[in-house]
Design a protein that fits this description.
Strand content: 5-15%
CATH topology of the domain at 160-316: 60s Ribosomal Protein L30, Chain: A
Distance between the termini: 146 Å
Radius of gyration: 54 Å
Strand order of the largest sheet: 1-2-5-3-4
Structural class: alpha+beta
Shape: rod-shaped
CATH superfamily of the domain at 160-316: OmpA-like domain
Largest sheet: 5 strands, mixed
Length: 337
């Protein structure tokens, strides 16, 4: 090793402060020139610093090949410094090494950004898939609920139809624009001129009550009482009202929802046969039970029967209706049937 290399090694190993302490002030001036001549170029100093930054950056993990290339370039610069300290070749190779380290760090930053982007995209896709699965599950649940509701409606309609069919032995059942109409003969339900249900009437109404309990929720059931044309209008209206109320109250006792029921006295209105014959008058003395689904009940003018307005609210509540005014005494009024 020549003296220049020894001075260079000493200066590099100990540094200026260590040289001063080791040699003393008198010898420092002799060595300072040699140290100045063997100090690394600024390019090598910068290259060493930059490479150290690259080693501790994300480049070490994300772009290790680039870091290795920078390491190899720095090693070349270090060998040039060892062979010819402060030379242009040292400076040139150190410059290349620094740029290699910078490229490695830039590549690490880019790779890190791409990794974060891929991770974010994967999370986004996972969220989309989770949302899609959730939406699909909600859709399937909704479809299942709709299907169950439709099946329930069909089952209810089938039960209601079967219940109506079972009434053929005790009543006349037909479909009209105003709804399903169950017609019961007044001569079977009540004694002549009376409003007390007979035993036979109760048996018939038991079957009617079972059928009405199968009707969908929200249905409106209007019980209309009718008489023949004998007697005064007031007496016939009062009698028909009491008969309708008697049927309504009995059905409520048998389990039919009282809020669905309305009792209406129609008197001698809307005859279905001539009042000039006994058979015709018998047909006109009747009770009609009109069943309307909720939607139809709302659209079918509830006020179409003006005589019933004072009785509707009490009837729908299921509470007994206030008795109407009693008809004139039999001494001044023909017999009512």
């Amino acid at each position: 090793m020549n003296s220049q290399s020894r001075n260079h090694s000493l200066c590099d190993a100990l540094g200026t402060g260590a040289v001063l302490a080791a040699l003393g002030a008198s010898s420092f001036l002799l060595v300072i020139g040699a140290c100045g001549a063997t100090a690394p170029t600024q390019q090598l100093v910068d290259a060493r610093r930059t490479f150290h930054e690259a080693e501790v950056s994300s480049a070490a993990k994300m772009t290790p090949d680039e870091v290795l290339t920078a390491r190899q370039a720095l090693d070349e610069a270090e060998r040039a410094h060892k062979d010819d300290p402060g030379s242009n070749r040292e400076a040139h190779l150190a410059y290349i090494a620094q740029r290699r380290a910078q490229i490695a760090m830039a590549g690490g930053d880019i790779a890190t950004a791409h990794a974060l982007e891929r991770e974010a995209h994967a999370q986004y896709q996972a969220k989309l898939e989770q949302t899609a699965r959730t939406d699909q599950s909600k859709l399937q649940n909704a479809q299942s609920q709709v299907k169950e509701a439709q099946q329930g409606k069909q089952d209810a309609e089938a039960r209601a139809a079967a219940a109506m069919a079972s009434l053929q032995d005790v009543a006349n059942v037909k479909e009209e624009e105003r709804g399903t109409v169950i017609t019961l003969s007044g001569s079977v339900l009540f004694p002549s001129g009376g409003d007390t249900l007979s035993e036979v009437a109760r048996e018939s109404l038991d079957k009617v009550g079972e059928a009405l309990q199968q009707q969908p929720r929200g249905a409106h059931i209007r019980i209309e009482g009718y008489t023949d044309a004998r007697g005064s209008d007031a007496a016939n209206e009062a009698l028909s009202q009491r008969r309708a109320m008697a049927v309504r109250d009995y059905l409520a006792q048998r389990g039919v929802d009282g809020s669905m029921l309305e009792a209406v006295g129609r008197g001698e209105a809307d005859p279905i046969a001539s009042n000039d014959t006994p058979d015709g008058r018998a047909n006109n003395r009747r009770v009609e039970i009109v069943i309307q689904p909720a939607q139809q009940a709302q659209s079918y003018g509830q006020g179409s029967v003006s005589k019933t307005q004072s009785t509707s609210s009490a009837a729908k509540s299921g509470a007994p209706l206030q008795q109407p005014q009693q008809p004139p005494s039999p001494s001044s009024t023909p017999a009512v049937h």
